[in-house]
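job 3f2a | input accepted
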Amino acid sequence: MKTLRTAFGAMAFALACTLSPIAHAGLFEDDEARKAILEMRQRLDASHLRLTDELRKANEDNAQLRRSMLDLSGQIEVLRGELARMRGQGEQYARDLAEVQRTQKDLSLGVDERLRKFEPSKISVDGKEFVADPAEKQEFDAALAVLRKGEFAPAQILFSNFLKRYPQSGYKAPALFWLGNAQYALRNYKDAITNFRLLVATDPEHVRVPEAVLAIANCQVELKDVKAARKTLEDLIKAYPQSEASSVAKDRLTKLK
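job 3f2a | predicted structure (257 res):
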């Protein structure tokens, strides 16, 4: 019995010895696993923290980017407003410039028109062309208009003043002719003869000369100087045989005694 008990004890000891390394190995493996799990957890925690930090920074960057975009959008709107204002100013400047140019053009045309009123121009009177100042033409036309209304005294003054003011005028011959006619109408025969003769001497080829010579004869008749009148009519017929005044002179000669 004692031997059996001893045998069982030996067997138990041997079994204990046999199982002890296995138990020890199991314990070692559990520690390694725990360490690995802890390390993995630490790495995960570190990764989580890193990711969390990166996410936070990304959110901050996105927020900053949004703020920058909002600022940029505001600046763009400000620039758009400024551009629209400048475009409006440019359009207004263009309108102002066009208005200034139109005004300048109108002023230039007005100045040119006023200058033309003082510039000499080509005139044609009694088939003769010459250059006369606007004021010169205006005064002659005014005197002639008065004469045509039958206002001989004012016409005489106007033509006399005209000849004094413009002694070399291209209007000189017609002015002398119409002055003589005004004086004839006023029965100022001697002065009329003087002006008609001055016309003949000034421009002997003028178209009014035959009429002026005939008018001289008429003045001489009115002055009762028949002899002088006949001589004047004869000279007229000889000098201007084809003129209408010559035909009238022939008729007058037959009636003079």
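job 3f2a | DSSP finds eight helices and two strands in the chain.
job 3f2a | closed
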